[in-house]
C-alpha cells in the first residue's frame, strides 16, 4: 500500500512539476532545435539567446517597471487599509461590530459587476491612470477576515488592557503593541496582495488604453495569447528556412518571457514558505 | 454630547433616556475605532456599494450624459432580450457545465492529494512534494494560458509530438470546441490542487491522535482509518469550502476563458461573464451587459443560499 501511494505521489508530483520544468528548460534551449524536437526535460543545446531577445524588447521593460510600481503601491495601500478595517473589527468592544461585519462581508457574495464598476471608475475620472489599478481592490474581505482572526487569537487581551491603563490611545495600541506582534500576518497578507497585483491583467485590460501604463501581464498577453492563429492551427508549412527560424525564435522568446515574468515569485518563494504555512494554519482556524 | 442626549430624552421617560445615553456612551468609547474604520467604509461605499446602486441601469436605457439616476426606465426589456437571444442557452450550458464539471473534479482532488501526502512515511519527501505542488498557484492566469498554448500547439507542442510518436494524428486542441471544458477544468486543477491540499493537510493535523490509536487497537486498516476517522473529521472543512466554491459557480474563472477563447471554439467557450465583457466593454452596451451581469450575480447568490441551507439541514457547519 505504502509503495503504491509513494509511486502515485511521484507521478502526480511529476505531472504538476513538468510544465514548469519544461518552460525553464525550453527557455534555455536553442530555439531551432526545440522546433525540430519539442520534448525536453533538460535544455537542448544550452544557450541564452532567447533571453537576449527578451532584454532587447522594450515593452517588457516598461511592463516590468509598471508592474513593480503597481505591486509596491497597491500592496502598501492594501496593508494599511486592511489593517484599519481588521483591527477595529477584532475588538469585541466595538459598538455596532456586527453591522460593520455584515457591511463588509456582504460584498464577498454580491457585487455590481464589471460594467457598473467600470462606469463608477469612469465617473471618478481615474481611467487610464495608476489609481484605477491600485484603488478598486484596496481591501479583499477574505484577507481582512484572516487578519482579524489573527488579531483576535494572537494578541492577548491583557496586553491591550495594560496599555490602555497606561493611558495609551487606541491608535497607540495599534501602532505600538499590536503591529510589532503582527509581523507574520503582515508578511502573509503582503504575499497574497503582492501576488494578486503582480498577476492581474483584466483590470488593466478594461481600464487602460495607454500602452505606457501596461503592466507586465498585459504585455505577456499580447505576446503569448494574441498571436493565436499559429498557436491554434499550427504552422501549415515552413515557407522557407528563414520563416521556420523566425517562428522558432518567436517561440523561444515566449518561453524566456514566461520565466522572466515569474522571477519575483521564484525569488521570494522559498523565503516566504515558512510564513505561508503559518498563515494557512491561521486561515483554517477561521474555517 | 452625553448631556445633550439626556436633555433631549428628558421628555421621553426614564427608560428611553437611559437607553439613548447608553448608546451614545458606547459609541464614544469606540470613537477611535470608528475613525480607523472611516477609510475602509468609504472605500466600500465607493467601489462596492456605488456600483451595486449602478445595477439599476439594468432596468434603464443608460445614457452617459444622464447618469445612473436620470436615464430613462425600460423595465425588463434587456432581460427579455437576453432570454430570447439565440446565445442564451449556449451561455447557460457552458457556464453551468464548466462550473459543475469543475466542482465535481475540484472538490475531491485536494482532499485526495492531502490524504496521499499525509500517508507518506518519508517526512522530507512529503514536505518537498508539498512545497513544490503549490507553486502553480502563484502563477498568473496569463502564464497558465501561455503554458497551455505551448503544450497544445499542433506544430511545436509536447502533447502533439507525443501523439505523433505513438502513431496518432496531431490535434488542434484549441480549435475544437469539444476539448475546451476539459482544458479549462484540468488546468484549474493543476493550478489549485497543491494549494487546496494545504488547508486540508492543516485540518488533518488537528485531528486528535487518540482516534487513530483506538482504531489501530481495533485492527483497522489504512483505508478504514481514512474512511471512518479522517474523512468525518474533515467534513466541516469540506462543507465550508464547498459552499464557498459553489458561491463562485457562475464566475468560472472567466479571465482564463477569455484568454483561451477564439472564434473556432466559441460554441463551448462562451460563458456569461465573457459575454458581459464583450457586450458591455467592447460593444458599449452598458445597460444590456449590466442586466446580463445582474442575472449572473443573482443566480450565484441564490445558489449560495441554497447550498448554505442544505448544509444546515444536513446538520453540518455552514457559513451563517
User: Any idea what the shape of chain A is?
Assistant: globular
Strand content of chain B: under 5%
Structural class of chain A: mainly alpha
Distance between the termini of chain B: 37 Å
Any idea what the CATH architecture of the largest domain in chain B is? Orthogonal Bundle
Give the full name of the CATH homologous superfamily of the largest domain in chain A: MetI-like
Task: Describe, in plain words, how this protein is organized in 3D.
Chain A is mostly helical and 287 residues long. Chain A has two domains: 1-47, no CATH class; 54-286, MetI-like (MetI-like fold), CATH 1.10.3720.10. Helix content of chain A is 75%, strand content 0%. The longest helix of chain A is centred in the first third of the chain and has 33 residues, at 58-90. Chain A is globular and about 80 Å long. The two termini of chain A are 32 Å apart. By secondary structure, chain B is an all-alpha fold. Chain B folds into two domains: 2-55, no CATH class; 84-313, MetI-like (MetI-like fold, Orthogonal Bundle). Helix content of chain B is 72%, strand content 0%. Chain B is built from 17 helices and no strands. Chain B has helices at 2-8, 14-29, 31-54, 67-70, 77-84, 88-106, 108-119, 123-133, 141-152, 158-165, 180-205, 209-217, 222-247, 254-260, 266-269, 272-282, 286-313. In chain B, helix 5 (77-84) crosses helix 17 and helix 8 crosses helix 11. The longest helix of chain B is centred in the last third of the chain and has 28 residues, at 286-313. The radius of gyration of chain B is 27 Å and the shape is flat. Residues 1-11 of chain B have low confidence and may be disordered. At the A-B interface, helix 1, helix 4, helix 5, helix 6 and helix 10 of A face helix 2, helix 3, helix 7, helix 8 and helix 9 of B.
Amino acid at each position: 500500500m505504502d509503495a503504491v501511494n509513494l509511486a502515485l505521489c511521484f507521478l502526480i508530483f511529476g505531472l504538476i512539476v513538468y510544465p514548469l520544468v519544461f518552460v525553464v528548460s525550453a527557455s534555455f534551449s536553442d530555439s531551432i532545435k526545440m522546433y525540430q524536437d519539442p520534448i525536453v526535460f533538460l535544455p537542448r543545446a544550452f544557450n541564452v539567446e532567447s533571453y537576449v531577445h527578451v532584454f532587447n524588447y522594450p515593452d517588457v521593460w516598461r511592463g516590468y517597471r509598471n508592474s513593480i510600481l503597481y505591486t509596491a503601491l497597491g500592496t502598501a495601500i492594501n496593508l494599511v487599509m486592511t489593517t484599519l478595517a481588521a483591527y477595529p473589527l477584532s475588538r469585541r468592544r466595538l459598538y455596532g461590530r456586527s453591522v460593520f461585519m455584515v457591511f463588509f462581508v456582504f460584498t464577498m457574495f454580491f457585487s455590481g459587476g464589471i460594467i457598473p464598476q467600470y462606469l463608477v471608475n469612469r465617473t471618478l475620472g481615474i481611467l487610464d491612470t495608476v489609481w484605477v489599478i491600485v484603488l478598486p481592490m484596496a481591501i479583499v474581505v477574505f484577507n481582512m477576515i484572516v487578519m482579524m482572526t489573527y488579531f483576535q487569537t494572537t494578541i492577548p487581551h491583557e496586553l491591550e488592557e495594560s496599555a490602555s491603563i497606561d493611558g495609551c490611545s487606541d491608535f497607540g495600541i495599534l501602532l505600538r503593541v499590536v503591529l510589532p506582534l503582527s509581523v507574520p500576518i503582515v508578511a502573509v497578507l503582503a504575499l497574497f496582495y503582492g501576488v494578486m497585483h503582480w498577476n492581474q491583467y483584466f483590470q488593466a485590460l478594461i481600464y487602460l488604453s495607454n500602452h505606457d501604463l501596461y503592466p507586465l501581464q498585459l504585455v505577456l498577453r499580447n505576446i503569448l495569447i494574441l498571436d493565436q492563429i499559429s498557436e491554434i492551427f499550427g504552422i501549415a508549412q515552413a515557407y522557407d528556412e528563414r520563416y521556420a527560424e523566425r517562428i522558432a525564435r518567436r517561440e523561444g522568446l515566449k518561453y524566456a518571457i514566461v520565466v522572466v515574468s515569474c522571477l519575483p515569485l521564484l525569488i521570494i518563494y522559498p523565503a516566504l514558505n515558512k510564513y505561508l504555512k503559518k498563515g494557512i494554519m491561521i486561515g483554517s482556524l477561521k474555517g | 454630547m452625553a448631556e445633550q442626549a439626556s436633555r433631549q430624552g428628558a421628555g421621553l421617560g426614564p427608560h428611553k433616556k437611559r437607553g439613548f445615553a447608553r448608546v451614545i456612551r458606547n459609541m464614544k468609547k469606540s470613537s477611535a475605532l470608528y475613525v480607523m474604520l472611516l477609510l475602509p467604509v468609504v472605500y466600500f461605499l465607493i467601489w462596492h456599494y456605488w456600483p451595486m446602486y449602478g445595477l439599476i441601469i439594468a432596468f434603464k436605457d443608460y445614457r452617459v450624459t444622464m447618469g445612473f439616476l436620470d436615464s430613462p426606465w425600460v423595465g425588463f426589456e434587456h432581460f427579455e432580450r437576453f432570454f430570447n437571444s439565440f446565445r442564451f442557452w449556449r451561455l447557460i450550458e457552458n457556464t453551468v457545465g464548466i462550473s459543475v464539471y469543475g466542482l465535481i473534479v475540484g472538490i475531491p482532488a485536494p482532499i485526495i492529494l492531502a490524504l496521499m501526502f499525509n500517508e507518506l512515511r518519508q517526512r522530507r519527501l512529503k514536505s518537498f512534494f508539498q512545497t513544490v505542488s503549490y507553486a502553480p498557484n502563484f502563477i498568473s492566469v496569463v502564464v497558465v494560458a501561455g503554458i497551455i498554448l505551448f503544450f497544445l500547439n499542433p506544430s511545436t507542442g509536447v502533447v502533439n509530438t507525443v501523439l505523433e510518436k505513438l502513431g496518432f494524428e496531431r490535434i488542434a486542441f484549441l480549435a475544437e470546441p469539444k476539448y475546451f471544458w476539459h482544458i479549462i477544468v484540468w488546468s484549474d486543477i493543476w493550478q489549485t490542487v497543491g494549494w487546496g491540499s494545504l488547508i486540508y493537510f492543516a485540518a488533518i493535523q488537528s485531528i486528535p491522535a487518540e482516534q487513530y490509536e483506538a482504531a489501530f487497537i481495533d485492527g483497522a486498516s489504512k483505508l478504514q482509518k481514512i474512511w471512518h476517522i479522517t474523512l468525518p473529521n474533515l467534513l466541516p472543512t469540506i462543507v465550508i469550502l464547498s459552499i464557498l466554491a459553489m458561491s463562485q459557480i457562475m464566475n468560472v474563472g472567466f479571465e482564463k476563458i477569455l484568454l483561451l477563447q477564439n472564434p473556432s471554439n466559441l460554441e463551448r467557450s462562451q460563458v456569461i461573464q465573457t459575454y458581459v465583457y464583450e457586450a458591455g466593454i467592447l460593444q458599449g452596451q452598458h445597460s444590456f451587459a449590466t442586466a446580463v451581469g445582474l442575472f449572473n450575480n443573482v443566480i450565484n447568490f441564490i445558489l449560495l443560499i441554497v447550498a448554505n441551507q442544505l448544509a444546515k439541514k444536513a446538520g453540518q457547519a455552514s457559513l451563517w
